[in-house]
Amino acid sequence: MNKTINLNPSKKIILIIVLMLIGMAVYASDSITLGDPSFTNNNTYFTFPNAVINSNQSFYTLSITVDKGSINDPASDSDYSLITDNLSPHKSITFVFTDAKDSSYVQDKLRSVTFVSDHYMTVNVSVSANESSLPSDMKMTSQEIDGVMHYYGYVNYDGTYGGTGVTWREAYVLAKSCYFEGMKGYLATITCDAENTILDNISLCRGWAGGARINMDSNPTLDADTADAYTHRTDYAAGTVDSSQNNTNNSKWTNSWLENWYWVCGPEHGKNFYEDNYKYYPETSSWSSGEPNNYGYGGKYTDGNWVLEVHFGSDHKWNDMSSTKDVTDDDNTNAGYFIEFSNYDGGTVSGYDASNTLEGSTIVNRHQWTVTADDTNNKFKATCSVCDTTIELGVGISVE
């Protein structure tokens, strides 16, 4: 539609235009509606003062994530613990309540959260009536992978080599004993570069992941609650180096003791991610230089190196390690494991109900336009100070 604007072209006209696109997910009669954001400090920060959680349920968790912008630290309170990523300010926070809270209480917490705005950002919110049991002081974040929301955390153990660190087998069991919003934990499985980046953002400390060079001939029960069924092959020799097997300038062993590496837990359990002929799959581009190499087999580590640790060395890549050694070392006193949660067959606790989780999503599209008039050609142009975009306003506008 054409409009005529009567303006004096010799004057500068400043217009601030804030555009909002609000999206909402509704499940049955229960829903989360975020409403219109309220901006402060020249549109730098915003909250959702009119957010509504419409439900008669009581909730154990409130999770908030953004793809751009950030989330400020909420005030501490004895009624909940906060789980965040390691970014400052955050892109992901989760309130884990000490007991089930009614929707009015959770709604007030949602309204109190302050966001740092970006010119185009998505805010995702979820609340869950499914219970959670998590380690204290765990860093955590979330990411949608292939249409399914995954949650990731790092559980830290202080110690030195031979000290109080946690072994892979211990970490496997500990991860399986945790649950978040009714989803059982498992050592993280890394199937794409995005998941590698997620773990980097949570913590760069060394830690265990859910990969192992296991003996599949023994028909192990994968994704079990214990690691008792996981063994490596014992019929291999020490091996010899053959330069003809050189891959990315790293000599590889010719004997089959490297075998095949598998994800042993989570929805990817049983998936082969690295072959003994050194064929790299896309998700295995993060091996540290020269790894896996079974260092110390027959000596320092009598069972060989057959389980996966991440963030090894100065480049924070992957490494093969013994299952009986903790991942701490003389120069690294932080050790632990990466844990993941997702909804898959067999991956939930008794009593889990997917309908107990409500989700809401809002896209905030914010531009700040400065519109100026040009005396020479009677035209206008609009420049956004947020995204540095300029638009000429010649079509549909006449100036008298």
Number of helices: 3
Which structural category do the helix and sheet elements fall into? mainly beta
Main sheet, how many strands, which sense, barrel?
A: 10 strands, mixed
**Roughly how many Å is the radius of gyration?**
26 Å
Q: What is the CATH superfamily of the largest domain?
A: Mannose-Binding Protein A, subunit A
Q: What is the mean pLDDT? A: 76
Q: Give the tally of structural domains.
A: 3
The counted number of beta strands is 29
CATH class of the largest domain: Alpha Beta
Helix content: under 10%
- The fold-level CATH name of the largest domain is Mannose-Binding Protein A, Chain A
Tell me the span between the first and last alpha carbons: 18 Å
Shape verdict: globular
Core attributes:
5-stranded antiparallel beta sheet; 8% helix; mainly beta; disordered C terminus; 38% strand; single chain; 3 helices
Characterize the structure shown.
The protein is mainly beta. The chain has 3 domains: 3-13 and 369-399, no CATH class; 26-130 and 351-365, Sandwich (Immunoglobulin-like), CATH 2.60.40; 156-341, Roll (Mannose-Binding Protein A, Chain A), CATH 3.10.100. It contains 3 helices and 29 strands. The chain has helices at residues 103-112, 168-177, 193-202, and strands spanning 3-5, 26-27, 30-33, 38-40, 45-47, 52-54, 58-66, 70-71, 80-84, 92-102, 115-116, 120-128, 139-145, 148-158, 179-180, 183-187, 207-212, 241-247, 250-253, 261-263, 272-274, 307-312, 317-321, 334-341, 357-365, 369-374, 379-384, 389-392, 397-399. The strands form 7 sheets. Strands 13, 14, 15, 16, 17, 20, 21, 22, 23 and 24 form a 10-stranded mixed β-sheet that branches. It is globular. The two termini are 18 Å apart.
